[in-house]
Specification:
mainly beta, 67 residues, 0% helix, eight-stranded antiparallel beta sheet, single chain, flat
């Protein structure tokens, strides 16, 4: 996996396949390897799944539903 990206942003990886961070943005994953959150500065976006299907993305008080 690459260790940097254009603009010299450092990339870090978990288990070689899940992106842990790019610059100051961090990501977390569940036991299935699905991304469950992304945090940039003071803003966190959460991801909700039904099985392996992404069904909702929430940032603050705003939710986006996927049908």
């Amino acid at each position: 996996m690459p260790s940097n990206w254009t603009g010299n942003r450092a990339l870090t990886w978990i288990n070689g396949i899940d992106l842990a961070s790019i610059g100051s943005t961090t990501f977390t994953y569940d036991g299935e390897g699905q991304r469950v959150s992304k945090t940039t500065s003071a803003t966190t976006t959460s991801y909700t799944y039904e099985g392996d299907q992404l069904v909702m993305q929430t940032t603050g008080n705003t939710s986006l539903f996927f049908l």
